[in-house]
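Ticket #4471: structure export looks truncated?
Reporter: QA, pipeline team
Priority: medium

Steps to reproduce: submit the single chain below to the structure queue and open the exported record.
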Amino acid sequence: MVQSRLLKSRIPLRSKLPNTGVTIFTTMSRLALEHGAINLSQGFPDFDCAPELVEAVARYMREGNNQYAPMPGVIALREALARKIERLYGRRYDPATEITITSGATEAIFDTLTALVHPGDEVLLFQPAYDSYVPAIQLSGGTPVFITLRPPDYGIDWDAARRALTPRTRAIVLNSPHNPTGMILTSDDMRELSHLLDQTDAIVVSDEAYEHIIFDGARHESMSRYPAIAERAVVIGSFAKTFHTTGWKIGWAAAPKALSAEVQSIHQWVTFAVNGAIQLAYAEFLAGDPECRGVSTFYQRKRDLFLSLIKESRFRPLPCRGTFFQMVDYSAISSDPDTEVAMWLLKEHGVASIPPSSFLYGVDSGPILRLCFAKRDETLERAAERLRKV
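Actual output as written to the record:
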């Protein structure tokens, strides 16, 4: 037994991602379970999706759609997506050559960055940045270059973005509605982005997973709306957020033919294809409601309810214009770092949150936590009762 341990210790290992470890989402969800805390950390609903959607999946399974789907995705879903995007944003993607169905938006992001980034390339990121971006860039030998978004509104400093461009800038990653801050890009931002792109050959990678969760009458500024940008952009989306099905892990990427071919060249070696029966069910639902009406209204009611419930607490909410995440300032409670406050809140008060420093590199997050309000009303009420006692 001792010899076996010694042999194992001599295995030469050199990690490609030595500094990443287990994601904060895994950690906080595990701790929430261990401590019996209410989980407002990881971004998933604690309510079910529409029973009609489950039945549609079961029906397609019973009909025999249980083998490999086509590598780019079931054509019915790609056609439904093409119609949806054209109806909402005015751009027509060819479903045969310009849309790829992936194992979640995270795979689409990985495929795209792996396809685009070569050793020595730089990728412009706006932080706090969703935690899958940096590892994908580093695995391809690229270097992330950060522009920091500052609270309370987390607006983009476009002058800083222009200064960050170099001849090595290969891609610019944007995320709107933005996880974790709830910021959204505006038409002014899109004009600034257009000016920025005049100075570079970089490709835009646009993470639009929360496209249908946008509040207060605002318009989602998809890259697909803007022809000059769309010609050099990979637009990425997710069915999980729209249909409350995070566990099904199906997303998509839409891009001009040449870019889509590069995305698919990676996708075919990562997952090859994703669940065909679920794709057919999504296609059916999209055909019936291409605008996904009601999703924003549903989540705005959740946001407003949660804000009303924590109004008498010492947590100060920051603006949330999209996603199902609420950033809160805890400076009236503690001056400790966000990681320490998140652990204290979980263990002592039974509410799990996410410390935004998990999305930041080389800068302080400030006294802020991220809370998820994609929960049943009774879950939000119970969590808010605990938060009001802090």
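Status: closed, not a bug. The export was complete when the record was re-opened. Leaving a note from the reviewer for reference: Residues 218 and 315 are 25 Å apart (CA to CA).
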